[in-house]
Amino acid sequence: MIKLAKKYDLKVPRYTSYPTTPHFSDAVDGETYKGWLAELDPAQALSLYFHIPFCDEMCWFCGCYTKIVARYDPIAAYMETLLKEVDLAADALPGKYRARHLHWGGGSPTMLTPDDWRRLIDRLRSRFDVTDDAEIAVELDPRETTEDYVKGLANASVNRASIGVQDFNPEVQQAINRIQPFEVTKQVFAWLRQNGITGINMDLMYGLPYQTIARVIDMVDKAVSLEPRRIAIFGYAHVPWMKEHQKMIKEQTLPDVEERWEQSEAASKRLEELGYIRIGFDHFARPDDSLASALKGGSLHRNFQGYTADKASALIGFGASAIGSLPQGYVQNFLPTKQYTDLVEAGALPIAKGIVTGSEDILRREIIERLMCDMEVDIDTVCAHHQVEADHFSEELNRLSPYVDDDICRIDGGKIFVSENARPFVRLIAATFDRYLNTKEGRHSSAV
Ligand SMILES: C[S@@+](CC[C@H](N)C(=O)[O-])C[C@H]1O[C@@H](n2cnc3c(N)ncnc32)[C@H](O)[C@@H]1O
Ligand code: SF4
Fold first, then answer.
1. Tell me: the pLDDT tens digits for 224-243?
2. What residues have CB less than 8 Å from 187, skipping those under 6 apart?
3. What is the largest CA-CA distance in the chain?
4. For 236, which of 58, 83, 179, 207 could close a Cys bridge (C-beta 3.0–4.6 Å)?
5. Of 3.10.310.70, 3.40.50.10960, 3.60.21.10, 3.80.30.20, which CATH number belongs to 20-318?
6. Is pTM beyond 0.90 here?
7. Element (H, E) at 378
8. Which amino acid residue places its CA nearest to atom 6 of ligand 2?
């Protein structure tokens, strides 16, 4: 497989949505979205996502949409806009809808003060019926977390935290401008548990400067010693043409595609030896975690936050750049905070672009999602479910033959199985079913 990593170093999407964001257009705007919200089924519980695009200091590997702020004023102003946006979306819904999954991402949501957390959660509770069993999850940067802060999160009913680590090795940390001693992470784990926040995830990365196989295994061992319920291991996406600060990472310090493959495999093998269940191509969960149960039950999903057990048919995004997913299609808010703020202050839903999902998109999305989640898909069953002929995808199945020849996948009747040792290639198999993909247009990160 390692030789194939070089052969197939194609740039393909990560399929956190289908169609993917480069295919969104301004034909979908705030008025379209308003109509979609008005049509939502009140019987279905919603998921809510909040984007907080602020950080203290830039990590040089960072691919997220964020900006560095030295004062709280811009965050305080953003918070006021966010509260107004919650009202705008809630006003467009024909009733008080249930919300069962709430997720704060960024940037660093932990830039918000505990008081602002409380205000936002209070506003949400007044405009949505947040269920008693709701998952309230926050991406948390341990470097800026104190015990009082964790208490504030617990008081605001947060019950899941995703902790950014990346790697514990000091030389790697230096090269990515993110100094975070092991003891700091360990202390935050203890505070979270003491305050009842027991759903703890950890983000790690491979493919970073100066990482080696031995260091990646050491990173995994240190991570597991803290017993997180879930671990995500992301392959570093080096896209300096899009993220200027990534130019601070010297390319000669980065592992090549074969080394990346070996690091990813070494980390996965070690995590499985230590009792974690492999979820998709970059997540791992303890067997008693809801992500592992969802995988077992065939109900694992993929959304903008990665793999999820969240089954909601509508995800409403708030904040600059946030993406929403509704039965009718996808929408994305304006990225520049100024445009986002001006629209909300003028009383408009701040949608920059989106896409209507037609029946062909929904059919292909199901195939892509099942492949990305289960590493297999029964094309005949999906086609029957969508009432299309079983030979609808005969051309795509033919196009898979180079991957079949290379043992990346196997086709048996109408079923496609991704080989266990070829999981990182699943994006390539999924891309075969992407009817928008034109490899000449747009640049994505490496599949491996
Ligand atoms: C929004 S950050 C997490 C919260 C917080 N800002 C922090 O860093 O602790 C989300 C995660 O995305 C991952 N990530 C960021 N940039 C990436 C890149 N260029 N390639 C792959 N993963 C990346 C990191 O693992 C990071 O923890
Ligand atoms: S990785 Fe997290 S803390 Fe670092 S710059 Fe990106 S969003 Fe901010």
1. 999 999 999 999 999 999 99
2. 142
3. 60
4. 207
5. 3.80.30.20
6. yes
7. strand 376-378
8. 62
